[in-house]
Each structure stands twice: as structure tokens, then as C-alpha cells.
Amino acid sequence: MRFSLSLLIALTACTLLRVQADPRPRLIDPKATRETKALYHNLHRLSRQHVLFGHQHATEYGHGWSGEAGRSDVKSVSGSHPAVIGVDFSGLSGRSPEAVGQAKALLRQQISDTYNRGGVVTVAWHFTNPVTPQTGFYWKDSVTAPAVRHLIPGGSHHTEYKRILQTVGSLAHETRGHNGKPVPMIFRPYHELDGGWFWWGKPHCSREEFTKLWQFTVSYLRDSLQVHNFIYAFSPDCLYQTEAEYLDRYPGDAWVDLVGVDNYADFGRNGRYNVAAGIAKLKIVSDYARKAGKLAAFTETGLESIPDTSWWTNTLLRALRTDDMRLSYVLVWRNDTRSPTHYYAPFPGQASVPDFLRFYNDPATLFENDLPRLYRRKRWLLF
């Protein structure tokens, strides 16, 4: 097929405009593994038309059950696991060596199983305060120490923090798939950093202290411990109205691969809905990602107990399908084993199941059974 000179010029101009307006995301780790680079590339490609659905702790436990291989509440309802499985590094510190060892073994199994099935792993870190470990990860007035200043270089607990990161790094190296390769993970430390409920939150450290902590964490894992299978995700809560407010404690484009937001408040928490505001905040994240060459995601959301039986399509899907929004995944929170009310994904018999199946069947959403081979990179035509 022959192209005229004018058509070739037009296509070249269009390509240049796309490159200028929408830079292709690049990982901040130049030594990232081939599989990690492929995952990042493929999530970027898929986000142009789709969003992956995720659920925290989906395959570890669910509503009324725990530790059953191959099970998830989402699979029991839809026939497929979520595309994204959330795990947590909370068990890697603040416990006995035996307990830490058990936590590592469970994490290795969950993470490698997800990878072997073709799914994606995202890692939260409800990090026990190293200075006052008896207070856990929440901030408790008059008891919890403002620890960030003590963890950064020069701080009283800096050496201990490096030991904790060494545990994280060893898990990253040891967790491998059936192909023997280290499993790529979306690592999301210090989430909801703009709130005050965690010890790393905005009221408990300065902007400079927080960004130093973030930058040291990435640098030590990547450059000192040679962890090259992490995608680093930055995810404040929804306490912003503008891009400048969103970026208030952003550590810089050289230190972040994925930008996200945790937002329950605008999507029905306590019966309060402000979906338009939630969409506007997601748009800030999506627009910044495209401008800065990052991935974007809706890193946490959900409606506890799902009393709104049309929430999946009338609220969540409506937000995700806003024109020109590009989000790589959305993750809802966990289903507690014992609590009759603390759950965020449906299980058989739950009232929102019919609407969730409509959400599942929508062409925009991807579950594990829908995924292409995410850990192999293919060439894709621009036109």
C-alpha cells in the first residue's frame, strides 16, 4: 500500500504531537527486570480502554473463610479472581523473628501464586511504628512517637529502618514465579500520607522529612539492596482539590512510577455521596500521570457492606468511565473473615451480586480471566 507524501507528513506530525502531549511512562529503575518493564508497559497500554479490578487480600481470606487454596469471594461470584490482588507487608516488622518468618512464607505463596496465574500484585504497608511499636501503625495521641524524623539518615532509628528494609528486600528477591524470575510488585508504602491517622501522616512530620523518607526508601531498596522488581506507587487520601494540593508531599517524578488516590469518602462512606468530587479528584491523578509519564490508579475505594445494590455500575463504573480518564486499576478493600459487616466485595448471596456481575461483564473492566500475558512485552502499532 502506497502512502502519499502529505499523508506521511500528517501521520508523522500526529505522532510527534502524541509524544509531546502524552509521554510514555518509564520506570524510575533503569535496571528493572524484563517482567517488571513488561507489566508497566502493558498496564499503560490497557489503561487506554480498560481498568483492572482489584480486591485486597482476595485469595488469603474472605467472608466467613480463610486459607482455602484457589478461593476468593470474587471468584465464587463471577468465576474469576480479581485481576489485581492486594497483599500487605504489615507482618514484616514489629513481631518476633518466628512471626516475621511465617508472614514472609505466606506472602511468598500468595504473590507467586498470583503471578503464576497471570494476575497483578499490589502491596500496601501498614507499617508498625519502629519507635513506639506498641502503638502499631495508627497514630494514638500522647502515645505514638512522630517517627519519620528518626528513620531518615541521621535519625536515631535509621539503622533499624535499614534492617526492616533488608527484610522487605529479601522477600522481593526470594519471591519467584514458576519461571524462576522475581515477581513484579506494585509497592505502595506510606499511603494516605495527607491524613493524620497513620504515624507517617501530614500532622506528624514535615514535608521535607516525608520526602526524605520516601527517597531514602526507594534508593536503599533499588540501589543498595538491588531490588529491581518493584513499581513504586504514591497514593494520598482524597483531601485535595487541586493538583498543587495533591502534589504537596510528592517526592518527585524521579522517585515515583504510579500515582493514585485512596477515596472512600466521596463514594458512599457513611451514606454520603459526592461522586462528582470523586471523579474530579481521579481526573487530577489521571491528568498528572499522563503529563508526567506515570501510570495512574484508583488505589483504594469501596463501600462497606455494599448496602447500595447498584453501587458497582451507578457509582464506581460511572466514575471509571468518565471521558478521557486513564486508570490502570481500581482496588476495593478486604472482606473480613469474622465480621458480618466489614466487606467490600460481594460473596454468594450478597445483595449487590447482580449489579456486580453487570460490572464484571462490562467491556471496560478486566478480571484475571480476561488478562493478556502481562509479563511479556509485544510491539503495538500506533495506528
Automatic annotation (TrEMBL):
It is found in: Secreted. It is an enzyme of class 3 (hydrolase). Keywords: Carbohydrate metabolism, Glycosidase, Hydrolase, Secreted. Residues 34-369 form the GH26 domain. Pfam families: Glyco_hydro_26. The active site is at 192 (proton donor), 300 (nucleophile). One of its GO terms (cellular component) is extracellular region. Substrate binds at residues 126, 197, 264. GO terms for molecular function: mannan endo-1,4-beta-mannosidase activity. It catalyses: Random hydrolysis of (1->4)-beta-D-mannosidic linkages in mannans, galactomannans and glucomannans. Its EC number is 3.2.1.78. The keyword DNA damage does not apply. GO terms for biological process: substituted mannan metabolic process. The record marks 191 as: Plays an important role in maintaining the position of the catalytic nucleophile. Belongs to the glycosyl hydrolase 26 family. This is Mannan endo-1,4-beta-mannosidase. It comes from Rudanella paleaurantiibacter.
